[in-house]
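In this supplementary section we document a worked example of the pipeline. Step one takes a protein sequence of length 355 as its only input; no multiple sequence alignment statistics are reported here. Step two produces a three-dimensional model, which step three serialises into structure tokens for compact storage. The input and output of this example are shown verbatim.
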Amino acid sequence: MTIIRIRQLKSGIEDYLENGSKKGRKQHRDELDKRVAIYGDLTVFKQANQYIKRKKDWKNNYWHFTLSLAFKYHLAPQGVLREMVMEILEFYFTGYDKKQLVAYAEIHYPKIQTNEKGMQRLPHVHLVVSKLDLWSSNQVRGLLYKEEVAKAFQLWIDDNHRFDSYSESSEDSLSIDEAEQIMVKHQQFHLKYNKHEKNEFEPDKAIISKSLNVDKEGENTQKKLNALHSDFLLYQKKQQKIRRANKLYLATQSLKMRLKNAVACVDSIAEIEQCINSSDVEETIKFAEKEFKLNPAFFFIVEKGSKKLAKDIRTGQTFNSFGIVHEHLNQDIRETIKVLKRVGAEREIHVSELH
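The serialised model returned by step three reads:
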């Protein structure tokens, strides 16, 4: 079952996403995971948080959603994960136009395969949503958390993408129709009791809270209102510019990544073939266990003709040495070649020591 965890926090997520900073953890983020941005821009999110810290005094400044897939879906296409992010935004922020929201999402494909407790690390998505409404500068009102609704949504999203789902007990099991009814009922309740303005930016209406009683005729007050209006209007224009550029950036980067991998594959075809032919899959798994904490218990060796392959008991898929490093350890083409060359070098050292 796809697991979606939701937290409301005040700060810290930018540093976590960029550096992987966590108590007791020494590795940098890029050593831990292969990161792929799939929605929004982290810089925009950071700027929104900075604005909130300067102008607001909210208990929490953003939502942090963590979407975790079962290992059997670790090769799910990025497009599927992007769709899931959009579905989370549409459901948990019912009634909001996406242009009102400052959201950013990235996929983490684990390079280091097990955590400090020896548990398999899974491919997962981090989605962060600022509480700043770009159309009003007021606080975004997301769907109130309710366990029954969260379970219904997780069941629905699994069904929508044909992922296996389960319930902790038969008593808690829901049909898809029942799950949809629970979701719709909660959305309707939210829209009824948590209305928000959707007007384009306007002075007073957008910036000034209706609960704030001020003398708008006073000269000093008017100056403050105008300054606040100008400040936020300038901020909003910057966001719009960045958002437009980011749409092009994401599309371009996605294409560049595919082309880069294709070119690297073509340019390195001779090295790739040499690595595949000269490397031993058992040695590769031992190396991956030592360097990347890959659990060898999940694999057994099968023979296909004269070649040995590793079969993953969780998915039933078979891999040669190149596949183990490229697919399981989430290394790009050049990194995979470097790893397999290190495996070969260690084998040569071991052989020379024996002689």
